[in-house]
Write a structure and sequence with these properties.
Chain B: Pfam families: MnhB. Chain B: Its main location: membrane. Chain B: InterPro entries: CPA3_antiporter_subunitB (IPR050622), MnhB (IPR007182). Chain B: Keywords: Cell membrane, Membrane, Transmembrane, Transmembrane helix. The complex is a heterodimer of chains A (768) and B (139). With 768 residues, chain A is mainly α. Among the domains of chain A are: 269-525, no CATH class; 711-768, no CATH class. Chain A has helices spanning 2-20, 24-30, 33-42, 46-50, 75-99, 105-123, 127-145, 152-183, 195-200, 204-218, 227-230, 236-245, 250-262, 268-289, 293-314, 328-353, 358-361, 371-385, 391-405, 411-437, 457-474, 476-484, 502-524, 535-555, 560-578, 597-616, 620-640, 644-665, 678-704, 711-723, 728-736, 738-767, and strands at residues 55-57, 60-62, 67-68, 71-73. Chain A has a two-stranded antiparallel sheet. Chain A starts with a helix and ends with a helix. The mean pLDDT of chain A is 85. The mean pLDDT of chain B is 81. The two termini of chain B are 17 Å apart. By secondary structure, chain B is mainly α. Chain B has one domain. In chain B, strand 1 (95-98) and strand 2 (105-108) form a beta hairpin. Chains A and B meet through helix 28, helix 31 and helix 32 of A and helix 2, helix 4 and helix 5 of B.
């Protein structure tokens, strides 16, 4: 099992890597392989997983910190694997036909990497591993939305989606850590057994809110719902795959995983129900008002995600088996399939008709020219509206039944919200299928691509996606009870589509309300004069970006004076803080260190003169020459302290840096007059003086104070017997601390490459 | 900086400096010296020679010493890996005595490691200096 699960996760990543090195043509072909392979691996596991078999694979990661990389294949996980790979296969085939030459190897790599991350997410048993994959999906989504880097809309949408879901990811990480600390484990499968302990903890609600914050952001729940419509700048197959079928379901998946843990918590279900139904209404209302077909689908996706969330809020905790409430898989399958099919079909319509603006399309009769697309969109739309004979109808019935059976205060309001939301779904479904195809005038030939130039796969793939809807609508008992959720106890009416009771009446009144609403819309809806925007959010995003760039400017000023001041003042302050404790008595053997004052006065004079003159001199060359003089004076000190290695190094480094500075300066303009204000100069002087004083005190203190455990003696004693060398400096460099030296020369090498890249590369380009 | 005197001096200094660097490198383990200092001496001499004898327009193109940086890293890391191959920890050095009596030569892998350091220092220093020494004066 371990090999199979790892293969399922790794296959798409391997594919992603491979496509990067292929020609666009072959990259598209090879991209078909990973989802097909994953399907081949996962389908044989489905019957066992669907009846409740759970496989947990233990993979140690960081045992001392209690971290694992455990994987789990159970009903919920296996369902998502099939969904991701199945829809993924169709999406890849559709993308090849739809994007044509625009599908670069980079696009395939991002798409496949997303697939792998998503598979990893749903197979993770370890919350930490889940978080890693969660963030990878965010990243891949960013790349795919922003695929067209030239378009400002695509860039803004990508950034918006990244900020919202990225912030949600941080919330999830914080929640993971809190939950892991309370539970004493990061393994999701061992948490339900410890639910009592978790719920008894005072930090329970913090953990719950943080985790749900991540889930809500990912699944576009109110108040984080605005990123999803912005993500529609992505090409149609990406929208269909990430932003309706799979990625936005990750939050629902997480809620499913959390429900056995937090199900008994008093906040869990009311919160999910409230947020879910609010999202249902807000998304529905936005979809009713939308004029862009793709935006309409995006808003309706938001609304439907609200239903999926609310479903976890109504079912009694006892009915949650393995993180699945009754009807959840049905609802997810239903929505994932019809919504991705609709996205793909709208992509087709956009190609054919040259627009996806409903205010234009409603004037034109497209059905005559596009009967196949019309029928397919019709099937998807009436499933979306919840009309009978299709899977969407069953899904809606199950939701209504769960609401009616639930006993909680405010159930009437919840049912009313469900009916109103359902009616709005009917309105936008009718907008989509009727208004798009049944306008008064014949469509013009001037817009869009020629029909013959489009691949047939653009219709075949959505048709395949819609097939389960028809099957499930005609034979719901077999499809739902035997294939999707065989372990669940279903009421008798699920076997047939018709039954007359309270649920059915509610259903019918929802449909009637919706049709009435649609007629009102046709009559009174006006095209807004300005395109819809998310002004509030854009302001928020620009504030966040502004704050971060302010912080970056403050810390990374890009100017030498600021850097030096920050670094040096910090160093001096740290040194001063260390000496705050007062001074211990001078070391008894301190005399051995001291030098002949008469001999030392000469180098001291050189250093002091060099330093003072360097400040007074006006041009750069004199300044660096004088600084070098001070450096040579320092070398004399090393002679007096009998440190020949240091002498050699100091002289050579001083020489080479002088040489380098002189070479650089011949390229710089002459120094102008000092433009600093008097106050600025005083501040710089103050910093310099304080720093000099701090270093002087430090040097003096280290000379006279005893070291707690002098390292030198030990190294000296070990040098010859251990390393067979008499020069302890070199022994430390090449032997005792050899790895440090290796690191340092690596830094040197990197610096040299940097110089070549910045300087020599430029010179070559200019020369060429 | 293109004077006859400088050219003659640079020509004379280069071999002496390189010899001096080699001696610094070889004796480094027992007396003042070592790969880093030896590398700096060599680089200084080479740059002096280049400033005196190579036309400015040629300088940026001439040094192809970045390779010595890679070679040096490879030698230093490889020295450490030899010990790993023998089953010891990374960068454990081994020592050998060749010959006998007063003619004994002490050899050890520390010298090899120091050669790696030397190559990296020479390569990166010359590359950096040459990057700014070459080309027309853009002022």
């Amino acid at each position: 099992m371990q090999t199979i699960l790892i293969a399922i996760i790794a296959t798409p990543f391997v594919g992603a890597l491979a496509t990067l090195f292929l020609s666009p043509r072959w990259a598209g072909r090879i991209a078909l392989l990973p989802p097909a392979l994953v399907l081949a691996l996962a389908i044989p596991r489905w019957p066992a997983a669907a009846t409740g078999e759970t496989n947990i694979v233990t993979i140690p990661w960081f045992p001392s910190a209690g971290m694992t990389a455990n994987l789990r294949l159970d009903h919920l996980g296996a369902f998502f694997v099939l969904l991701i790979a199945g829809v993924g296969l169709g999406i890849v085939q559709y993308s090849r036909a739809y994007l044509g030459k625009k599908a670069t190897p980079r696009f395939w790599a991002a798409l496949l990497a997303f697939m792998g991350a998503m598979l990893g997410l749903v197979l993770s048993d370890s919350l930490l591993l889940l978080f890693v994959f969660w963030e990878l999906t965010t990243l891949a989504s960013f790349l795919l939305i922003g695929m067209d880097g030239q378009s400002p809309e695509a860039r803004a949408g990508a950034i918006r989606a990244f900020l919202v879901t990225g912030a949600g990811g941080l919330s999830l990480l914080a929640g993971t850590l809190v939950l892991g600390q309370i539970a004493g484990t990061y393994d999701l499968s061992s948490m339900p057994a410890r639910a009592e302990r978790i719920l008894a903890s005072p930090a329970r609600d913090v953990a719950l809110l943080l985790m749900l914050g991540g889930a809500f952001a990912k699944s576009a729940q109110v108040p984080f719902h605005f990123w999803l419509p912005g993500a529609m700048a992505a090409p149609a197959p990406v929208s269909a795959y990430l932003h309706s079928a799979t990625m936005v379901k990750a939050g629902i998946f997480l809620i499913g995983r959390l429900s056995p843990i937090f199900g008994a918590s008093p906040a869990f279900q009311p919160l999910l129900l409230t947020v879910g139904l609010t999202t249902f209404l807000v998304g529905g209302w936005d979809a009713v008002r939308a004029w862009d077909l793709k935006k309409l689908l995006a808003h309706s996706t938001v609304a439907n995600l609200g239903v999926l969330t609310a479903l976890y809020g109504v079912s009694p905790p006892a009915e949650v088996h393995g993180g699945i409430v009754r009807g959840e898989l049905l609802a997810i399958t239903n929505h994932a399939l019809y919504k991705s099919a609709l996205f793909l079909l709208v992509g087709w319509m956009e190609k054919v008709s040259g627009t996806r603006d409903l205010s234009i399309l409603r004037e034109e009769r497209w059905f005559q020219r596009e009967p196949v697309a019309g029928v397919l969109i019709g099937i998807g739309a009436i499933s979306m509206g919840g009309f009978p004979f299709l899977l969407g109808f069953m899904s809606k019935e199950v939701f209504l039944e769960a609401l009616l059976e639930a006993r909680f205060p405010g159930v009437v309001a919840a049912v009313a919200a469900a009916v109103v939301g359902g009616a709005m779904a009917v309105v936008y479904a009718l907008k989509l299928c009727v208004s798009t195809f049944w306008g008064p005038k014949l469509p013009p030939d001037s817009r869009g691509y020629r029909r013959a130039s489009l691949s047939r796969w653009l219709l075949v793939v959505p048709a395949v996606f819609l097939l389960p809807h028809v099957i499930g609508g005609i034979a719901p008992g077999w499809f739902i009870g035997s294939v999707l959720e065989p372990g669940t106890h279903w009421p008798a009416w699920i076997a047939v589509w018709h039954h007359i009771d309270g649920i059915f009446l509610l259903s019918v009144s929802t449909l009637a309300l919706g049709v009435g609403g649609y007629l009102l819309w046709r009559r009174y809806a006006e095209v807004p004069s300005q395109p819809e925007t998310q002004i509030a959010f854009d302001r928020l995003a620009s504030t966040v970006l502004g704050a971060s760039s302010w912080f970056t400017r403050a810390a990374q000023a890009g100017g030498h004076p600021r850097y030096l001041v920050v670094m040096l003042v910090f160093a001096a302050a740290a040194a001063a803080a260390a000496m705050r404790g007062g001074s211990p008595p001078p070391r008894p053997g301190a005399e051995a260190w001291s030098v002949d004052l008469a001999a030392a006065s000469l180098p001291a004079a050189i250093v002091a003169a060099g330093a003072v003159l360097a400040v007074l001199m006006q041009d750069r060359v004199s300044k660096v020459v004088l600084m070098a003089a001070a450096g040579y004076g320092l070398a004399v000190f090393y002679v007096l302290f009998r440190a020949p290695d240091l002498v050699l190094t100091q002289i050579l480094v001083e020489t080479i840096s002088l040489l380098l500075l002189l070479l650089v300066f011949q390229r710089l303009p002459r120094l102008g007059a000092d433009e600093r204000s008097r106050g600025q100069r005083a501040m710089h002087g103050l910093f310099a003086a304080a720093l000099g004083l701090g270093i002087a005190i430090l040097a003096w203190a280290s000379g006279i104070h005893p070291a707690a455990r002098p390292a030198g003696a030990e190294q000296l004693a070990l040098s010859l017997p251990e390393a067979k060398g008499r020069n302890v400096v070199n022994v430390i460099l090449v032997d005792f601390r050899g790895a440090d030296t290796l690191g340092e020369i690596t830094v040197l090498a990197i610096a040299a490459i940097g110089v070549v890249a910045l300087r020599v590369g430029r010179a070559r380009r200019e020369g060429a | 900086m293109n004077s006859f005197l400088l050219r003659q001096v640079a020509r004379g200094v280069l071999p002496v400096a390189v010899l001096f660097a080699v001696s610094l490198l070889l004796r480094g383990h027992d007396a003042p010296g070592g790969g880093f200092v030896a590398g700096l001496v060599t680089a200084a001499a080479v740059v002096l020679h280049a400033l005196a004898n190579v036309a400015p327009s040629e300088r940026a193109r001439r040094p192809r010493v970045l390779g010595s940086v890679w070679l040096g890293l490879l030698v230093a890391a490889g020295t450490g890996l030899v010990a790993v191959a023998a089953g010891g920890p990374f960068l454990t050095h081994s020592h050998f005595d060749v010959g006998s009596g007063s003619a004994t030569i002490h050899l050890s892998t520390t010298l090899l490691f120091d050669v790696g350091v030397f190559l990296v220092v020479v390569g990166s220093t010359i590359t950096t200096l040459a990057a700014f020494a070459g080309g027309e004066n853009p002022r």
